[in-house]
Structures are given as structure tokens and as C-alpha cells.
Amino acid sequence: MKLKIGEHFFSWDRPLVMGILNLTPDSFYDGGSHHNTDDVLRHCEKMLTEGADIIDIGAFSSRPGSEIISVEEENQRLIPYLIEIRKRFPETIISIDTFRKDVAMKAMDNGADIINDISGGIFDEDMLPFIGETRTPYIMMHCGGSIESLHTNHIKEKPCDIVRSFFEEQLETLSRYGEQQIILDPGIGFNKSMQSNFELLNNIDSYRVDNLPVLIGISRKSMIYKTLKITSQEALNGTTVLNTIALMKGADILRVHDVKEAVEAVKLVNEL
Predict the structure, then answer these.
(1) Does the residue 50 lie in any domain?
(2) pLDDT tens digits, residue range 85-135?
(3) What are the residue numbers of the active site?
(4) Structural domain contains residue 58
(5) What is the reported pTM?
(6) 1 part of a folded domain
(7) Count of domains forming the chain
């Protein structure tokens, strides 16, 4: 299992940590926290100093009830900051959280390395052809619904089978363009019941296709704070517990708000 991202080769001698940078005013945990260039660069530097391997930048909020913004607005939120981040941190691996081909293309033209698509190629029919033809490193997430129903149409039975079938179908489409650089994400918290979220976390290898790396993104999500009857702001300890379990179940990448704690979890689990 090996991927080439930019000039970096990963053979996964240890799991990677992806730090989240939200450029949205309404994300469920840190929306509106980064609203000027200095704040954005400062937060990037903090995550990199704490050990982030990848910075994942998002300009479209997928939280429940979020506004569906235009491609133009998404690009306006994203591209100026991407340019500044690439200038300040030229060696950093940058992922762009978007399901739109036009945003992905512009981001890649301005220094992005990976496209992280919450729809796995179903919200924009032009995304998979773009990824396939350009061999762009691609995170394929399962969501199982439309952009309007990301958090309402819940999968309640056989989530691992459903997610695996989705990956197999989308990977077959991409294979027509030749060998690709793919990371799988089961989409925990998207169109899944609480029980399904925990089932996906507990059975990572059951939907791993072609021995591809699997990303787990559970940072401060409702499966944690609703189970514990707390808020997302209080969910760091629960996040670390479940990230540790994800690592022990075979996760290759953790997508997190809190980089330091995730890096520590990786180091400790690796010692086992």
C-alpha cells in the first residue's frame, strides 16, 4: 500500500494525521474562527508544529442546516487563503475539501495536492472524470444521499456492506482512466444512524477495498457528544478515545481538529 502525493511517498509505516482548517462561518465546531490571513496562517503553523502531516482546507460547510453556497463563493473563500498557505508553507501537503470539480481544478492549479470529496463523486458528475484523467490524489468518502439530505436519510442496516459496495462501484469507474491514487473514507456521521457510525468504526477492514488506505474522521462529531450528553466543545477526550480505537482497528489517516492529541495517540498506538 503506497501513495505518491506531490513529492511525498507514503508507505504507511505509521498512520498520518490530517489537520482541519475550516474557512466557513458556520462549521459545527470551529466555524468563523479563521477570518483573516494572519489567523489562517497562524492556525496552519500551529497544526504543523504539533505534527500534522496534511492540512485539509474546506470552504463549504457540510454541517446540518448549512447554506448551499455557489461555486463562485466557495472559490472566493478558498483560493486566496490557499495561495497564501502554499507560499508560507511550500512543503506542506494540502488537501481541499470540496465535491465540485470546478473548485477542485482551480485549487489544484493553485498548489493543492489532494481532493477530499464528501460525496465520493456523486454530487458533481464531472468530478470522477477530472480525477481520473489528471490522476489527482483523491479521498473518496461515502455519504449515501444528496447535499440536501446529508444528515437526514440515515443508513440503519448493513452499513459496512453498503459502504463497500459504493467504493467498489466508484473505484471501477475511476479504473477506466488507469491507475489512481485513492484514499477511502466511510463518511462516519453522514447519512448514518448512531449504531451504524459505531459499526463502521469497529469494522474498518470490512469495507477496505484493494488494500487502500482508510481515513477516519470522527473529530468532535455527534456520535461522541450525543452519546456522552455533552457539547462538541467538550468532546476532545471522547474524540481521542475513538481515534485510538480507530487506529487499533486499522485506520491509516485521522482527520482531526486537535492535532497534538491525535499525534500522541498515533505514537502510543505505534508502540503497541
Answers:
(1) yes
(2) 999 999 999 999 999 999 999 999 999 999 999 999 999 999 999 999 999
(3) 221, 255
(4) yes
(5) 0.93
(6) no
(7) 1
